[in-house]
Amino acid sequence: MEQLKHLPNLLPLILVSISIPATANPTNPTIVNGTVTITQPNTSTLEITNTPGSIINWQQFSINPGELTRFLQQSPESAILNRVIGSDPSQILGTLQSNGRVLLINPNGILFGANAVIDVQGLIASTLNLTDEDFLDGNYFFTQTGTGAPLTVETGAQLTTVDGGQIWLMAQSIEQEANSNITTPGGQTVLAAGTQVQVVESALGNMVFNVTTDGTNSLETLGAIASEKGAAGLFADNITHSGTITAQSAAGVSGLVVLNATNNLTIEDNSVIDGSSTDNSNGGIINLTAGNKLEVQRLAEVSADGGVTGGDGGKITLTAHDLRVSQIANGMQNIHAKARHTSGVDGTVTVTETGIHTYDPAAGDFQVNVFTTGIQTFPAIAALAGGKLVVTWQSNKQDGDGYGVYARIFDPSTNTWSNEFPINTTTANDQEAVAVAALPNGNFVVTWESKEQDGDDTGVYGRIFDANGIAQSNEFPINTTTNDRQENSAITALANGNFVVSWDSKEQDGNNKGVFARIFDANGVAQTGELPINTTTDKRQELPTVTSLANGNFVVAWHSFAQDGDDEGIYGRIFDANGVAQTDELSINTTTNEPQEAPTIAALTDGSFLVTWDSEGQDGSRNAVIGRRFASNGTPLTDEFQINTYTDQPQDTTAITSLGDGGFVVTWESWKQDGSVQNSVYAQRFDSQGNPVVNNNALPTGNAQGNEFVINTRLVNNQDDPAIAPLGDSGFMVVWKSFGQDGDSNGIYTQRFDKTPAPFTPSNFLTAELGAVNNFTTRPNLSNGVVTPPTPPIDPVAPIDPIAPVNPVDPVNPIDPVNTVDPINPVNPTINNSNPGNPVTNSDNPSNTNNLVTNNSNNTVLTTLPSRQNSPEVEQGIALSYPNCHTLELQKLEEEDTIEPDLNNRWHQCRHWRYEEEEPSEAIQTVENNQSYNSQEQAYAQMVGEEEYNLTRSLSWAARQAYWQEQQQMQNTLSVEEYGNYLQGIRSLSEEERVEYFEELAQSRNE
Question: Residue 706: its pLDDT value, please?
Fold first, then answer.
């Protein structure tokens, strides 16, 4: 701002209005700053040529379909500010092009329509105001005026920059419709909805967006935003993302995605946020933050994976007061920062919930089984991709012969249950020990063991159903080895849509029991043979549990007898999606005294996994529930920790689920804890960091100690064999068997727990970093230009210089009517030439074939006119619009030290230019070498070219006017050869002679 205080304020300037024929292209401009030329090559095209830092006020700025508005700028760094002062919103329905940066400010609203094509170096479109002074200074401080107006990008709109470009869209509210595209390769895309947006630089050199909101500022993205190797940022009170955001990494450059909402941020089903690598680079960075609720729905995908050919996983951070990440298919995550090549290392997913919430039970236990005769036992549960849950169990005598497998589907959105339906079709003997897993396509698969169906003892079978319980396959065998027993199946879905089933098999590995697995596609077609899981085969390895991991792998855990030196111990092993082992056997437990058995495993939101098991005597009284957390590569993240607080009598038979807040819940059965002589089901909730959390509003019954809480409300007889699954993104559901509650032996019951968020105090301010400032052209504190007040346009009939007036020139016959000057050859005033067609001169070559010039010391003849972009009249008018001082005036300043401080005084202006602006270099060779010169001289130099500038740079503006007027006069009256002789004469003068000649000529024309 220091350079502005010496110049006239912009407001009282005499603004320049230019009339443009009526069209939907921008109309009625007023040039506020800089040098601007506006032309219409045809009826559908508007071309604006501007110097850096130009400012135009338009009555309206819209572009119709089929129309083109093009800004021709001096460089990609050049910027022009377009402000709409009329009352109409801007409707960009055609094409906007520029080789530089374009700013459009319209407080009435901005619409990029279905046919809009934006192809620029950079674009800032805002319904928030930006002052002229802030624009010139590079101070990006946008403020709402009035009630605010929206900005819309309609379906079909294409907003694109060249590599490294930036697009900033700012408004009271912003909507990007489906099938629209905003593309800034290697650059930056910003959508900010608020009442104020200020862009500053942090102490570490990062670009910081400070957004002030009023609680109603909304942003919705249904289209595509692509900033490959760049950065994308969305800021508002409430953000709903339903489209695709890609800021993929490549060539060693990481992408960055930042979504920050003061209130709620929702990542909807089928939306994508992708910061993954496209080559062998590391994955990028994704930061999702909400002041209140951050919801990632079950079919959304958030990824920052390393490259397929190399590179580590990236970094994903989720932070909110109320965090709700939907869990898909038995813990298979939709948020991942994995290494996709064996040489890479998985990245990190950090989940932080800042609020303290409770999970409240619904209205008591709910009976699931409808058929109540006999025994219904060993339930299993899975959350489906579409939001429903399926509960399975085994029921005795219901299918007419022994146990059969049945299921029922629960819809949390309507709180309704389907009818119960059979799973197996073979009913002879027993079908039991059921397991279930949801598939990414919305279906689910059930496995069980069936006695004598494969011809020898038990075998494992499976069947696939859709979310409504309609069978999608016949039952199919899982194992191919049928000798002896194959039993205790476990199942999980994989990230690629397949699923893996694990079981234990007697005598197959040569020594008692071993653990095996097999991979199937989503239709139940086997993709592998039987895969041996354990490598230690001595004695028995049994009771497998399996879960998929966020990086696409899966991990199997089991207990192995005597392998750790004392009874059973817990072991695990990690495999990729093709069944190839990624680790050796992992030792899970560290306490080896007495048995550690019956493991359960689950993947967590951050990509890690948790294993729990029963450990005899470890808490000092019978069995205890113990857990340990591991990274996705099998590295331990914690020591063993005890989950149960109540330690009297045994606590065992664990189940785990991850929660939408990044935490997890472990359930188990506890004997006599509720005061009866039977079991009850208890649970403990943990936050995303693994800390136990009190659940204050849990059921008040039972004898819960510490932070644990009871699940069942009925405290009579046994409640045991719990299973648990997430309830979408907002709770969990536990299922167990209860003795005598349904009137006849065991029945299947559930309890639902819904998340109740703690009170939230909204904030109307957010701040977010979005890349290093040095990566971008539009950045804070980098000047866009200086104040260059325009002068009234030069009238070709009366071209009056407001500083040094001269007499008018006739545009038809531009001879000064007041002071007619005969053509002069400064070297030799007598021009002898070979042009008999000119009656004024004397020619001695009637055939006009002799190109030699007689009586002239310089025999070189210029046979072509000097190259000029515009006509001499236009060049002359443009030249006169720049106030400046010539050498003689500057010299006089050295002699006259006291000048009245009057801004309208010519000498004071010269003093200003002499002492306040940097002095020009010896000569301006090119525009690129002239950055330190004042903007007026830069523009003049670029306009007339190097040769003409070097000839006229020492002239005053009045003398420059005389120079161009005389050139026009000579060009119109002399032949080409004679005009060439004239130019040679001018060029042969010394600088001092040339200054003296044209200064005197200018003075004579003013007398």
Answer: 65
d(CA 232, CA 441): 30
- The set of residues, in sequence order, having a beta carbon less than 8 Å from that of 770 and lying 6+ positions away, is 188, 190, 206, 207, 208, 209, 231, 233, 256, 258
Q: What is the spatial distance between Cα 265 and Cα 398, in angstroms, rounded to a whole number? A: 48
Q: Chain-wide mean pLDDT for the chain?
A: 83
Instruction: Give per-residue burial for 643-656: e unless 16+ CB within 10 Å, then b.
Output: bbbbbeebbbbbbb
How many domains is the chain partitioned into structurally? 2
Given a cut of 80, is residue 643 above it in pLDDT? yes
Pairwise CA distance, residues 510 & 502, whole Å:
18
Q: Are 980 and 830 in contact (CB under 8 A)?
A: no
DSSP 3-state of 195 = coil
Domain that holds residue 298: 2-357+762-775
Helix then strand then coil, % of the chain, to nearest 5 = 10, 40, 50
**Which residues have a Cβ under 8 Å from the Cβ of 395 and sit 6 or more positions away?**
369, 371, 374, 375, 376, 403, 404, 405, 406
Same domain, 295 and 177: yes
What is d(CA 338, CA 994) in angstroms, rounded to the nearest whole number? 73
d(CA 404, CA 669): 25
Identify whether 861 is part of a domain: yes
Q: Which of 218, 219, 271, 265 is nearest to 242 (CA)?
A: 271
Please report the pLDDT score of residue 701 as a whole number: 54
Q: Which of the residue ranges 383-392, 437-446, 930-939 would you say has the lowest mean pLDDT?
A: 930-939
Burial class (CB in 10 A: 0-12, 13-18, 19+), 903: exposed
Whole-number Å distance between alpha carbons of 500 and 330: 12
Gap between the Cα atoms of 318 and 350, Å rounded: 6
Given a cut of 50, is residue 837 above it in pLDDT? no
Helix, strand, or coil here: 562? coil
607/612 Cα distance (integer angstroms) = 17
3-state secondary structure of 966: helix
Lowest-pLDDT choice from 313-322, 529-538, 830-839: 830-839
> Quick count: other Cβ atoms within 10 Å of Cβ 16?
17
- Report residue 943: phi and psi, to 5°: -75, -45
Confirm whether 692 is domain-assigned: no
Planar angle of CA 711, 714, 717, nearest 5 degrees: 110
Instruction: Please answer whether residues 545 and 539 qualify as being in contact, where contact means their C-beta atoms are separated by less than 8 angstroms.
Output: no
Q: What is the pTM of this model?
A: 0.74
Query: At 382, phi and psi to the nearest 5?
Result: -150, 140
Is pLDDT above 90 for 139?
yes
pLDDT in tens, 164-210: 999 999 999 999 999 999 999 999 999 999 999 999 999 999 999 99
C-alpha to C-alpha distance for 806 and 823, rounded to whole angstroms: 19
E strand or H helix at 667, and its extent? strand 664-671
Amino acid identity at 397: K
- Lowest-pLDDT range of 234-243, 509-518, 814-823: 814-823
Domain boundary among 775, 805, 824: 775
Report yes or no on 378 lying in a domain: no
* Residue 310 in tokens: 């190399």
Distance CA 468, CA 470 (A): 6
Q: Is 844 helix (H, G, I), strand (E, B) or coil?
A: coil
How does pLDDT run across 387-435, given as a tens digit for each residue? 899 999 999 999 999 999 999 999 988 889 999 999 999 999 999 999 9
Beta bridge partners of 209: 199, 768
Identify the domain boundary among 775, 804, 824: 775
Question: What confidence category does residue 936 fall into, taking pLDDT thresholds of 50, 70 and 90?
Answer: low
**Residue 47 shares a structural domain with residue 183:** yes
Of the candidates 868, 793, 925, 759, the residue with the CA atom closest to the CA atom of residue 358:
759
Report residue 85 as tokens: 């002062």
Give the whole-angstrom CA distance, residue 164 versus residue 184. Answer: 7
What letter would DSSP give residue 881? T
> Please, what is the end-to-end C-alpha distance for the chain in angstroms?
41
